[in-house]
Amino acid sequence: MKKIHSLLTVAALFGSTMLFNACGDDNNGGDNNNNTSGEVIVTSNVTASTTWTKDKVYILAGRIAVTAGNTLTIEAGTVIKGQAGSGANATALIIARGAKILAEGTPTMPIIFTSVADEIKSGEIASPNMDPNVDGLWGGLLIMGKAPASLSGDVVEAAIEGIPPTDANGLYGGTDANDNSGVLKYISIRHGGANIGEGNEINGLTLGGVGAGTVIENIEVIANQDDGVEFFGGTVNAKNVLVWNAGDDAIDTDQAWSGTLDGFAVICGDNTDHALEIDGPEGSANAGHNVKNGWVKGSAAAEMGNWRSNAQGNFSSIYFFNFDAGMKDGRGDLDLDATSAPNNGTTLNFDKLEVKTDSTNLSKIFLDGVAAKATKVTTNTVGSVVAFASWTWADKAGALK
User: Fold this and answer.
1) CA 394, CA 401: separation in Å to the nearest integer?
2) What is the DSSP annotation of 59-108?
3) Which of 69, 72, 85, 266 has the fewest CB atoms below 10 angstroms from its CB?
4) Amino acid 387: pLDDT
5) The pTM of the whole model exceeds 0.85
């Protein structure tokens, strides 16, 4: 079957799709407009605990929120699709503060979030008609929690980017470090990142003030127009995260997120800006995070990473390769802003960085003194992805080489 390569093709196919903004019309969000084709058109917020099952395809017809006090359970193998939309009508699924999502896929039956243009069915991994570089067709998945974030002015809560500030379901932050927003396991999020305003796109997976009681493991984000995964404060830990073809940064951290990311893979695409973008606190609360056991495949467009705005944390056992073409254009480097202090033993530390490169001078690649913690290698000894990525579309497509 001919694959969809461009937004113009998608627009032609789906330009007549009706879009309903759900933020002001509440009911249980479980059986809206059920029809004989096995599709459930979700047009309103989830205001009662609800289960979505793998025998149906759930179509997000607007900005859908699971509201406080309610739990959305999603069976392994379920497919959720977002209709086309932009601006305030960008489709997305928000787990509001005080709500939970229980979405536990398996390696053979992942839960897939994608566009209505995608013809994928339950139990499939690779799309039968979409290419893995088509982005911006819908919004994304956002989880809001009550854990602390370092916010400007030392306020306790803020409105998440990508959601209109008038929608209270997009508020995040609080004082409960152990807040529990549920479980995400074996989740693939694809073709998202719709723009709601100038420079304000939705990330594939947005984690705003998410607490340590939340479980996030085995996540794949493919072809998101903005960042793949972004942490805004919070204390949540994440394990085994893969981002392929991000339109901006693959993994972005902000506002003193204080959890650990253990095991990750980044495959930079033609439009990827940074594999890693690390920002520090915006308020007086200081905290760093741990990012370790990473495998990062570059592109001519991408840089390894940028540590900005008083960035803090520990970054260890990360393998970088395929950045040489970009380095010839003055890109491809790992850079620290002036406000970040490398290897100072307290707030920002690097250890066991490996790079496969043609360069003879690592100080031209790992800037601002980071080269002291880097080693040039032929074969990596850190950052293996074999153990956790075999279930992903990226692996099935041969992108993890």
Assistant:
1) 10
2) EE-SEEEE-TT-EEEE-TT-EEEEPP--GGG--EEEE-TT-EEEEE--SS
3) 69
4) 81
5) yes
